[in-house]
Write a structure and sequence with these properties.
4 copies of one chain form a homotetramer.
Chain A (H helix, E strand, L loop, with lengths): L2 E6 L7 H14 L3 E5 L2 H6 L3 E4 L26 H13 L4 E6 L1 H12 L4 E5 L15 H22 L2 E6 L6 H10 L3 E3 L7 H13 L5 E6 L5 H11 L4 E5 L11 H19 L5 E6 L2 E6 H4 L8 H10 L2
Parallel strand pairs in A: 1-2, 1-4, 4-5, 5-10, 6-8, 6-9, 7-8
Antiparallel strand pairs in A: 2-3, 10-11
Helix pairs in contact in A: 1-9, 5-6, 6-11
Subunit structure (chains A, B, C, D): Homotetramer.
InterPro entries (chains A, B, C, D): ATP_PFK (IPR022953), ATP_PFK_prok-type (IPR012003), PFKA_ATP_prok (IPR012828), Phosphofructokinase_CS (IPR015912), Phosphofructokinase_dom (IPR000023), PKF_sf (IPR035966)
Catalytic activity (chains A, B, C, D): beta-D-fructose 6-phosphate + ATP = beta-D-fructose 1,6-bisphosphate + ADP + H(+)
């Protein structure tokens, strides 16, 4: 193998640049030429491909977003479109591809591998909703951004004795809500994986109030219901000043945390090793603090699981 | 004068604690006893008053919110209620009061002064919408919080070539939007003080696109229209991926910036001096980088003005 | 078991408060009374002990340092002094003790356990130099503080084409240097566990320069040599503008990261469970992303090991 | 005037990029061509000059350091060297120059102006030691970096009941020490402009201790004496655990604060206006919250003054 390429696809996440840097440097360390494909699979199909040098990835490890930019290309499920991508790779003499992204990106990587082109997936998404890895690149930065927001909101909640509903990202996965809620000291955490009735939530708020708690923070994943809707339901039933904050897109940005840069460096480097070892069609991940890899085809059909121990702990500590 | 008191009222803002600390330390420096009134005018009326020592304000200069907590008491416009407050002050032997807050708080301070009790107002609000001062305590921290959010959103905007609408606080005053938009490098800034048509905004977006700009950030003060509504209008008329982020309550919190701690220290200390000089009914402020004071009665009837030079500059730099 | 206590000892680390909070809340969840011992073993011997309630640990999860304060008491190796501590515990009816700290603190906990009093150790130190756990509470925050400093220094290094030596904490353990150096994109990382000659360092700097690198960052653990000394040696032998920055005590402070709050919550809660299960003399830790426990007596005699895979990765990515 | 140029010189400071951006955009707004000169006067003499477009200054407003890089060229006092610079400017058809930097940079700008080439100085230095302006670009960011460090150190100081000496930048000017000390709540602030005896410092520490203060923070400007030396003197004479932290180069870096971006934008834009008005040989600044300009020749011969009111306030609040 002489030439490999790397692209980022789907929603961007902090640490993608650190992963790109690792792919490029690890590749050059092994005397490979490394190409960057811009705008994800969209750029692949359109031949938006450039050679990357050591200098191309200088001073990017600390930057949010992705220097390769990202895009979604739903049409890439179409075998005709996949073949166009393949042609571009062949045209540039590229023999292996690292795809950094989430579930949708993995499907593209799997399709290309099935067409005989070795791809390795690197889990880059803030949602931590990829199977085969305990943590995805960007998740740690996202929860740090969320707890920073919770800390700020706590200032004003405690100054005014208010109940705050904070809506965080997570359509299908509650990891951001669960981790940031626990680390942020939230009284109630609502995640898609575990339904809670509004009665339960109100019971807890009332118990807290009886114990002298004057302010309260509720973290809700967007997949459960909108923060605005939850706040409305609460206002109808409890005697408290309820406010809502929807954190939104700030969760995707920012300079990556040390943990994300570290994880991205390890995973990006391992992806290159897999290509060198002739192992296409794999997705790298971290499991039990060890870098591992699984077949992408398995990963994309497995649901993500939340850690029930953490759910239990969150409840015990928020009495 | 032997005993003075301090309270915070209305929406909390970062730096209120630094102002409280300054009042207490400056008071004690001049051999006064200083009392803290909790929960604003609500606590005043209910006699929620405690003596503060040097140690009471130790290690608070860097904390957001207000250790005295805050509240709104609309009933304080009622002279009967004002008299109840007055009685509490007399009961504790307090001879002067520092009121830290916004416009509504100043009205309370003015009412008490009119009843013969000397009050001094200190401008504490993130909105920068108080007359008689070029900057209010909390404004600098708020705009730093906003530009941090803009920087994060820019990561994802530039990775995806998106147009972002960022809604910031400011019902009647555009200062947060204007300053943070200029400092955040926003392409378009919408403030209540200057109406712009949707056509104008779209023209600018299109011109930017023609010049090769692939992403764009629009900062809108909540007083102009909601970010969601603006995004909807834009989506109908331009060919771009438009997203919206409502920053909300994080703008009120956080550790105060150096500038806010500094300003709060100067204003809090000056408020005590005014009481000692027998000058009740004044509001302190900073004008032309000098600590000044005006009659509260004037301040509460003057509209806040935005700096037209800054509006012009923002336009020239966002070409 | 009805009453337990908790103390923090040795150098403070961010997340200790989150661990204290977890001990208190988990204890109360299981209907225990929980006591706080102030100033570590010093306070234990002197009976500086107070009951903690849910409210005692409210709004502390995000605070650096330790609300129980810390101290060193070298005399605690003396059995007479240990017995004084024991008497205080008995006097208050306390039946189990959670000790949060580093190696020295563990020795105290082990001594008390050997005297028949069940103690559980929780690893709280920024140095990540405790055996039996892959991560200690405070380490993640410390490396985030270091990479924030590296990012700032990179600004000025790249603006002036300078070589920067950054000295970080770590007398015997290179983990802070290794992780922050890798995550900070340092060109050279010097750790006590692996000696490198000055010739090697200079070779690498020269190779980088030939490849067009105009600035360079060297992270050195204080246990290798002082940053000032290293900079002097470099200045004598290379033609570059070499500057040095000793990060010092800022590495110990700051609001704990999400990961540290999370780890502290899990470890603190597990420590209480161990006491309830009648398992004194254990130290909790995280190994392979699972909460584990070992005999303290083993832990204090085992050297900490650095991950050689990470050393290799750091070298490959810093070509 | 058709073509102007901009350079940064001397020590870099956060906000220089915002100033460069303002010069470029304001210039293009007025239909000028704007050139960037790399590596300060060194690059000027060597013809390291490139045309800048709107896109050249996109996404830089939030970045520390300077994209034009900086350098010192002591030889620029030599008229022969100045003429070489002049030739390069003429060769590119450049008719006016904006010089962003400190005192030394202003001398270069003044020399060129005296040779008939119109230059305008923009004060860019963290030290706030330029005459003719109350604030320099970078000062606000630097003091925010310092108070963030003080906040971190306070965590550990209060956990261990320690006295901390924090050395900050400022050889001849005490502004960083004074502002950050006041905003950081330091008990003692030592600046070059006002000598204090070690006896005084010790008196204050002892008085604080008697009042129950268990930890203490002393901020010392490097121009007074080194933090290490001060700590040694204190250790000899007081019974306290004294530690020292030298903040060093982190003070120069980091993303500029809102205030610095704002000031840089205003000053950079005004500098272009002055060139357009045919007013070379001026230095812009902010005085009494108004953008002003003075003759560079005056500025470089005037000493910087510290605000005595602030010194007094710092003393009164640190009782």
């Amino acid at each position: 193998m002489k030439k490999i390429a790397v692209l980022t696809s789907g929603g961007d996440s902090p640490g993608m640049n650190a992963a790109i840097r690792a792919v490029v440097r690890k590749g050059i360390y092994h005397d490979l030429e490394v190409y960057g494909i811009y705008h994800g699979f969209h750029g692949l199909v359109n031949g938006n491909i450039e050679k990357l040098e050591l200098g191309s990835v200088g001073d990017i490890i600390h930057r949010g977003g992705t220097i390769l930019r990202s895009a979604r290309l739903p049409e890439f499920v179409n075998p005709e479109v996949q073949k166009e991508g393949l042609e571009q790779l062949h045209k540039h003499g590229i023999e292996g591809l690292v795809v950094i992204g989430g579930d949708g990106s993995y499907r593209g990587a799997n399709a290309l591998t099935n067409l005989g082109f070795p791809c390795v997936g690197v889990p880059g998404t803030i949602d931590n909703d990829i199977s085969g890895t305990e943590f995805t690149i960007g998740f740690d930065t996202a929860i740090n951004t969320v707890i920073d927001a919770i800390d700020k909101i706590r200032d004003t909640a405690s100054s005014h004795d208010r109940t705050f509903v904070i809506e965080v990202m997570g359509r299908g996965a509650g990891d951001i809500a669960l981790w940031s809620g626990l680390a942020g000291g939230a009284e109630t955490i609502l995640i898609p994986e575990e339904k809670e009735t509004i009665d339960n939530i109100i019971d807890r708020l009332n118990r807290g109030k009886q114990r002298g708690k004057r302010h309260s923070i509720i973290v809700v994943a967007e997949g459960v219901m909108s923060g605005v809707k939850l706040a409305e339901q609460l206002k109808e039933r409890i005697d408290a000043d309820v406010r809502v904050s929807v954190l939104g897109h700030i969760q995707r940005g920012g300079s990556p945390s040390a943990t994300d840069r570290f994880l991205a460096s390890r995973l990006g480097a391992r992806a290159v090793e897999l290509l060198l070892e002739g192992k296409g069609g794999r997705a790298v991940g971290i499991v039990k603090n060890t870098i591992v890899d699984h077949a992408i085809s398995e990963i994309i059909n497995q649901p993500h699981k939340i850690d029930n121990e953490i759910i239990r702990l969150a409840k015990e500590l928020s009495i």
